[in-house]
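Worked example

This section walks through a single chain of length 287. The input is the sequence exactly as stored; nothing has been trimmed or padded.
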Amino acid sequence: MLKEEIDSLAPGRDFSRRGFVQTAVGSGFAAAVLPVTAQTITTDAAGLEAGSVSIPVGDFKMPAYRAQPAGKRNLPVILVASEIFGVHEHIADICRRFAKLGYLAIAPELFVRHGNAGAYTEIPKLISEVVSKASDAQVNADLDATVAWAAANGGDTARLGITGFCWGGRTTWAYAAHNPKLTAGVAWYGPVARSYHPGDKAVVERAASIQAPVLGLYGAVDSGIPVETLTQLEAALKAAGNLKSEFVVYPDTPHAFNADYRPSYRKAAADDGWAKCLAWFKKNGVA
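Given that input, the structure is written out below as tokens.
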């Protein structure tokens, strides 16, 4: 993990305090992001089936947060890949936002085998002890299991999208390279020129395997993701015949600009990115 990315995740923060309270997947906020800001968006669960579910991955039971319109079936499916902080209240809220629009949205706890990402107060320790242990092979298998669960629980996985933030943004690209049946993806500020787990390939090295249309949403002053790496990926995708993927880079915008619970939030870019995300899924058949 680059120091620049750690700084971009939470500039000027002191992670010595405690205060994490989480009773279930998707509840509370991760210790490393406390205190949350007054601008935090809260989406209610009225009209939804929303809450924790258990997804079988072989003999392992993986927790996840799921939201979908109550009583509805045959719903388009959105996989939501979390930041390095795991599935806390913000990620659950993203799921509810999608569900209000008619999606089955589900965020699996992809770090849970390795520890409680939400309990860490020190980001470097979180990266080394938990995040770096979640290999692409494990994460992709977990996401495949999540797709299978969605198909059995009201989802139409012929209309399958994935979106993610930071680590989850990279996961969006990686899953697009892994699953040829993915309909479309939207990656929010995910690193493309390096990996988190030792031995995993960077996204740019997998460009030839990415055939689904993926929209990349990035900030121009994200110190952990140089714009030139996005240019490299765009060129590699085009060289591999993927002419459907696109990038949007917001000027004067930092990392985590959609994280409304943190000081990095930039409302104009976040609102525009969300509108583009929804339009992208609709345009490409995930609606």
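What to look for: The helical segments are 3-9, 89-100, 123-129, 136-152, 167-178, 227-239, 267-283.
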